[in-house]
């Protein structure tokens, strides 16, 4: 018997996580369209989300799924529920963190046939969000029974790699401008680091226009004049909020795709959730996952199929037939299956309304896996901030803390309440809570590492006050490494 001719065209193996709710429906729809378009893919189905939680896997992603993603390096993922009552963490966050997918890419492009208040403005930009740092590190402490604190951790390397990714993405898509958007005017060290690194790094890309925009103005500008943006890059929380705002400009979360990129793994997913109300009814719109799959095809270098699928979708949306209920005119919503058939029938057709954009692979820099360490040439320990819980009046706290410091290596410089100075002068009408920061400065530079002096100070303070935590006040390379009151 003749052997079947060998399939000589290599297929790319992709981990497919159908997910929860409408996930399996939109995944099946996407896979059908990709197959009809001739995408050379081999799917490796993997489990994550509610079923994994039910099986007692607290991360929401079994080891086989993690192994599959690690092996293939590419995943397409449906929405995952974060169940209330069992399981603890979001499986989405777990996957992003485990594989250090530091770059969240959210294209924001006007879609034909999807009417919004911004239709016709030609919105076409990308939000690049840092995906693993910032307040999402989730390091939180109750400081007193009524005062909570979270740590906003921003690293220089984290800023550098996301800005470089934004620049590489701009180049890959033939874009011209990168807007670094930060709250550097208030958070001069954390958000300021993103601004500063953005300025340094983008100097190396003279073909790209670089601008900085304060993030609140960026939110305003996105609504007032969204067509001005090309690529925007932000720290995690700012990017989280503004990427959803941006999705709202072009049709909402239901049609918004995304990519999570890391050095080893890329995971593509719709922005929307599992929409449990319509799950299993054949009503879900697969557009967002399909557009995510288009991003995936470009990631693996299949630009032709990506363009074919994208244009078949555009033509379908333009024609306005067989659209699902969320985007069809009221009362005319069709089924997921009819929409898929229509997109498949439109494969090979080209939208004349959507401007053509040339894509190339994103030239991502490979980062070393080791902890990145930036040394300072000089370091000085100049003081210590001690956070104390007290219900006393700031003047009384000042007197007791100044007295505690007498005979120690320190002098009390100031006390602040939630960042506003309340001692030696109580400025304005500062509202007081039971949480104070007392700043002690070394009278003269410590001879050794200063720990004995700090321990002595804490013992003195602890006789009268409950202190919660301390921060060393340092100077790196001659510059203050702490904020002023
Ligand atoms: P959601 O699932 O996005 O649903 C909100 C509403 O949007 C739905 O009820 C539905 O509205 C509409 N919708 C969303 N996607 C749609 C689609 N493809 N086709 C048609 N309509 C669509 O948001 P949620 O209700 O806040 O979250 C539900 C679950 O999803 C939660 O467990 C949440 O944790 C999870 N979630 C997961 C991810 C992720 O995996 N990346 C993201 C977000 C949320 P109507 O039916 O009212 O028209």
Q: Would you report the number of β strands?
A: 18
Q: Please work out how many helical segments DSSP would assign.
A: 13
The CATH topology of the largest domain is given as: Isopropylmalate Dehydrogenase
Rg computed from alpha carbons, rounded to a whole number of angstroms: 27 Å
- What class would the helix/strand composition place it in? alpha/beta
Q: What is the rounded distance between the termini?
A: 84 Å
Mean pLDDT across residues: 94
> What's the CATH class of the largest domain, please?
Alpha Beta
Descriptive notes:
The chain is an alpha/beta fold and 485 residues long. It has 3 domains: 1-100 and 262-359, Isopropylmalate Dehydrogenase (3-Layer(aba) Sandwich), CATH 3.40.718; 102-116 and 125-242, Isopropylmalate Dehydrogenase; 379-480, Alpha-Beta Plaits. Helices cover 32% and strands 22% of the residues. The protein contains 13 helices and 18 strands. A 10-stranded mixed sheet has the order 2-1-3-12-11-4-5-10-8-9, with helices on both faces. Strands 15-14-16-13-17-18 form a 6-stranded antiparallel sheet, covered by helices on one side. Helix 1 links the parallel strand 1 (12-17) and strand 2 (41-46). The longest helix has 17 residues, at 156-172. The termini are far apart. 43% of the residues are buried. The model has no long low-confidence stretch (mean pLDDT 94). It binds NADP nicotinamide-adenine-dinucleotide phosphate.
């Amino acid at each position: 018997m003749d052997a079947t001719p060998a399939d000589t065209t290599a297929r790319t193996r992709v981990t497919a996580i159908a997910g929860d709710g409408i996930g399996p429906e939109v995944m099946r729809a996407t896979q059908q369209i990709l197959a009809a378009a001739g995408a050379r893919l081999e799917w490796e189905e993997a489990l994550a989300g509610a079923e994994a939680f039910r099986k007692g896997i607290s991360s929401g992603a079994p080891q086989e799924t993690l192994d599959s993603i690690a092996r293939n390096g590419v995943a397409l993922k449906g929405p995952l529920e974060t169940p209330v009552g069992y399981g603890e963490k979001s499986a989405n966050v777990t996957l992003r963190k485990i594989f250090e997918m530091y770059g969240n890419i959210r294209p924001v492009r006007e879609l034909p046939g999807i009417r919004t208040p911004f239709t016709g403005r030609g919105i076409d930009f990308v939000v690049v969000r840092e995906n693993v740092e910032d307040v999402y590190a989730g390091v939180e402490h109750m400081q007193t029974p009524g005062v909570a604190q979270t740590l906003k951790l921003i690293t220089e390397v984290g800023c550098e790699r996301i800005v470089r990714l934004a620049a590489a993405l701009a180049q890959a898509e033939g874009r011209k401008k990168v807007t670094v958007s930060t709250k550097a005017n208030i958070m001069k060290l954390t958000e300021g680091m993103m601004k500063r690194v953005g300025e340094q790094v983008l100097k190396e890309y003279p073909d790209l226009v670089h601008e900085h925009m304060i993030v609140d103005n960026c939110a305003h500008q996105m609504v007032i004049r969204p067509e001005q943006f090309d690529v925007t890059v932000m720290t995690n929380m700012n990017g989280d909020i503004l990427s959803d705002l941006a999705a709202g400009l072009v049709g909402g979360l239901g049609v918004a795709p995304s990519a999570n990129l890391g050095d080893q793994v890329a995971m593509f997913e719709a922005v929307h959730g599992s929409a449990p109300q319509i799950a299993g009814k054949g009503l879900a719109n697969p557009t967002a996952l399909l557009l995510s799959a288009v991003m995936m095809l470009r990631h693996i270098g299949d630009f032709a199929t990506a363009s074919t699928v994208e244009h078949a979708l555009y033509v379908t949306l333009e024609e306005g037939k067989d659209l699902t209920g969320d985007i069809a005119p009221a009362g005319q919503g069709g089924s997921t299956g009819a929409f898929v058939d229509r997109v498949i029938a439109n494969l090979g057709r080209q939208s004349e309304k959507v401007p053509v954009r040339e894509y190339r692979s994103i030239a991502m820099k490979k980062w070393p896996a080791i902890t990145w360490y930036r040394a300072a040439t000089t370091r000085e320990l100049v003081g210590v901030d001690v956070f104390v819980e007290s219900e006393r009046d700031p003047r009384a706290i000042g007197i007791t803390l100044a007295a505690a410091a007498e005979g120690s290596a320190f002098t009390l410089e100031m006390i602040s309440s939630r960042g506003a100075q309340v001692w030696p002068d109580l400025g304005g009408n500062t509202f007081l809570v039971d949480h104070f920061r007392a700043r002690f400065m070394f009278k003269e530079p410590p001879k050794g590492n200063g720990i004995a002096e700090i321990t002595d100070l804490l013992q003195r303070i602890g006789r009268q006050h409950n202190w919660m935590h301390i921060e060393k006040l340092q100077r790196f390379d001659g510059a203050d490494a702490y904020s002023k009151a």
